[in-house]
Amino acid sequence: MTTAPVWLSCHVFYHDDADRLLTELLLPMLAELRRRGLTQRQFYLRHWERGPHVRVRTRTLPAHRDQVRAEIERRVTEYLADHPGATDTDQGRLATALHRLNELEHGVGTDVLEAEPPNTLRWIEYRPELAKYGGPQGVAVAEDVFDTSTLLAGEVVQRVGEGRARLGVAMQFLLLATRALGLTEAQRPVFFRHYHERWRSYVPDTALIGAWAHQYDAQRDIYRRMLGDLERGRPLGRGLGRRWEDLIADAVGRLRPLVERREVWPAEVELSAPPFVALAALVSQYLHTTNNRMNVRPQGECFVAYLAHRAATDRGADVPELSGLAAGTGAE
């Protein structure tokens, strides 16, 4: 009998406020499972495929597998029965939205999976994205990041209102990620530009870019001051920022020798590129999945990267090309 840990993966289809589902059910449930020693790693993601849902992944020992699965199933089904989300979703609008998101993430001409009914739970196998995270060793690092990032994002979801406040956290995390990567003042604007371009296709209204320019102009001094604090090694935000920076710095420290030996290499990066490009691509994925957990969507990610890039270039850094990095895609 194997004693190797196993992953459980359930998708909770909920056509309503996912923050409510998380704060009232999923986050307390995950915390309790961890506290009781029943899970070793856990993370969640918001997703659109087959309809709006939250994916909950837990790693446990085979001896606990049936107990963890039964407990998750019981608590989720009871909650959905007592607190169902919306059931009157316009099916035409949903189909249009799913088609659009499918094209953005998988390309034109790919099949769109049929939507699941709302207020349902489905057990769907977790298949780690080996190509995206550079192979098994890269996935192992990513899953450790996801576990801690779920704790950090959970605090944000429970304590920070949506909208500008969460965009502010996303901005801090973006800036701090570049410091954890060890990027120079000249490299930072390149990273910000690529992160902006990664999500540019999710901003169909070009007029928004003009509005973002006005936003930047109105608060230029604030953004430039944040960049100055970053470059001087000062903390950004409160304790959450320090924990995030430590998390990414630890991941980068583990990844760097693996990337230099090409034992970990994300598929989106050309093999001829320098190792720091591969590291930057991996950290970009960690940023994106953390933003997803905080409900900062790709358009919001594009926005904060635009502000960061403007602030970095305003400070007069030269902007070299960062070759070898292909366009990115969405969360798993």
Q: Please give the number of β-strands.
A: 4
- Beta-strand portion reads 5-15%
Q: Give the uncertain stretches in residue-range form.
A: 317-331
Per DSSP, the total helix count is 12
- Biggest sheet architecture: 4 strands, antiparallel
Q: What count of domains describes the coordinates?
A: 2
What structural category arises from helix and sheet content?
alpha+beta
Q: What is the N-to-C order of secondary-structure elements (H for helix, E for strand)?
A: EHEEHHEHHHHHHHHH
Helical percent range? 55-70%
Shape: globular
In short:
58% of the residues lie in helices and 8% in strands. The chain has 12 helices and 4 strands.
Which properties best describe this structure?
single chain, 332 residues, alpha+beta, Alpha-Beta Plaits, four-stranded antiparallel β-sheet, globular
